[in-house]
Write a structure and sequence with these properties.
The complex is a heterodimer of chains A (224) and B (248). Chain A has 224 residues and is mainly alpha-helical. Helix content of chain A is 84%, strand content 0%. The chains are: A mainly alpha (224), B mainly alpha (248).
Chain lengths: 224, 248
């Protein structure tokens, strides 16, 4: 089987599992909803203020919620030694990694599509800048979180209390990406400056870490 | 090699005390900032030393990924540990200097933020090493070190887009510096580098000893009397029997 076919098969399996159990998406949705409500209580912003801070709030909520999905990525494969079976099979490791990363990307994207209207309602948001850039920022930003998150989740499989370990190693590395997402979103919402630099930065971040993950995933998968 | 260690230790002690004397007495008083500026002789050399150590950590991690050498792994571990200590010194001395001179403890400027993010990345690196349970800690840590190093330019450019408030670099940044000050600064840097090398070296020896002890203990556990058939195990069990009898 080619890498693409394997990636597709693994991705499809994960989506079907998720469709039947809805574990990740439900917990993510509820978690993000809680974050939105708690932020709304703790800041109580006016429409003008919320335009300034919403970029940060949205992405922090998505970042925390994404951790929930990322932690479940590999835990599913540990049951019944699926990961061990994958290790001894001749299938390329990168197919597994890409499938997991695409799967997480889809989960977080669905979450974003469902949560964004809630944000708009709760914070009375109306963008003053070019709105068509928002999907680009969202796609690049989500991939930035998910590609490193999937990789680090695989790394933290071999640590004690791995659910805590993942954010501890993911957040420091994600700082430039988070800064890029927040700044780009704020610039689009306020329309005060151009988001171009931040979009380029996010694209560079995605490129660098996608290549690094693909190059280094095989030794990490086989580490035991 | 073993004789070189005390020599380096003595050299470091002499250099550090002479550097301290130079920083406090020999270096001229700064015109506008006054004596507060003298913290600069600790702040800047610590920062340079920390960055060099992080760079060595990156090199050792890449070498580990290629060759899987234990020595490279231990070097990566000790440089990260000592680098975090020096980085902490930078982050602590910076605000002490900034409060009287800038009027604020902290600002989110390029170099400050970059140093803080580096500190965060390497602390997370050390935590990963501490939490890792399998025998593959070196591999996972090396991968994280490579990711951290790849992150540095991205952090740099992302924060560069904000304004910069930090004083421009004195060396090669167009600023002018009294040659005596430069002399003291470089002297301090030399002393700090020797000190860092000394600490790294002793930490390296300690870590190597730790690993040897762990290995020996694992071997010993495998060769427990209960596993070994023959005279030795019989003798041991007889000894145990006798001791329990006498206890009764």
């Amino acid at each position: 089987m080619s890498t693409a076919a394997l990636t597709g098969a693994t991705l499809f399996k994960d989506l079907r599992l998720e469709w039947r159990s809805k574990d990740a998406i439900n917990s993510m949705l509820f978690f993000a909803l809680l974050v939105v409500v708690i932020f709304s209580f703790s800041f109580d912003p006016t429409a003008e203020e919320s335009r300034q801070i919403a970029g940060g709030l949205i992405w922090v909520a998505f970042l925390f919620a994404a951790i929930v999905a990322l932690n479940q990525t590999w835990a599913r494969e540990l049951r019944n030694q699926v990961l061990d079976a994958y290790r001894v099979s001749p299938a390329p490791a990168n197919a597994l990694f890409l499938a997991k990363a695409f799967g997480n990307f889809l989960f977080v994207a669905v979450l974003e599509c469902l949560m964004t209207p809630l944000f708009i309602v709760f914070y009375n948001l109306r963008a003053l800048g070019p709105v068509w850039q928002l999907p680009i920022v969202a796609a690049l930003g989500t991939w930035a979180l998910v590609v490193n998150g999937t990789f680090f989740a695989a790394m933290s499989l071999r640590t004690r209390s791995r659910e805590i370990m993942l954010p501890l190693i993911l957040f420091p590395i994600s700082i430039p990406a988070l800064l890029g997402m927040v700044e780009a979103t704020t610039s689009i919402l306020t329309g005060e400056y151009s988001a171009k630099f931040w979009i380029v930065l996010l694209a560079a971040y995605d490129l660098v870490f996608t290549i690094a993950s693909l190059l280094l995933f095989e030794p990490v998968l086989h580490a035991e | 090699m073993k004789r070189a260690f005390p020599i380096l230790a003595i050299l470091t002690a002499i250099l550090l005390s002479y550097a301290l004397y130079s920083a406090l007495v020999v270096a001229p008083r700064e015109q506008t900032m006054g004596d507060v500026q003298r913290i600069f002789y600790y702040h800047v050399p610590s920062a340079w030393t920390a960055f060099i150590l992080f760079f060595i950590n990156f090199g050792a991690s890449v070498y580990y990924l290629i060759r899987r050498s234990t020595k490279a792994d231990v070097i990566a571990l000790v440089t990260a540990e000592v680098g975090v200590v020096f980085c902490t010194v930078v982050l602590v001395t910076g605000p002490i200097w900034a409060k009287p001179v800038w009027g604020i403890w902290w600002t989110w400027d390029l170099r400050l933020t970059l140093t803080l993010v580096l500190w965060l990345i390497y602390v997370s690196y050390l935590m990963l090493r501490r939490f890792s349970t399998s025998g593959q800690t070196p591999l996972i840590a090396a991968v994280l070190a490579v990711f951290g190093a790849l992150d540095v330019p991205l952090v740099y450019f992302s924060i560069w887009f904000f304004r910069t408030q930090h004083p421009q670099p004195v060396i090669g940044g167009g600023g002018s510096i009294d040659p005596r000050m430069l002399h003291v600064l470089l002297l301090n840097w030399l002393a700090f580098s020797c000190f860092a090398a000394l600490v790294c070296w002793s930490r390296y020896r300690l870590e190597m000893l730790h690993r040897e002890v762990d290995e020996a203990q694992a071997m010993e556990a495998l060769l427990q009397p209960s596993f070994v058939t023959g005279r030795n195990s019989v003798a041991v069990s007889q000894d145990k029997l006798r001791s329990t009898e006498s206890a009764q």
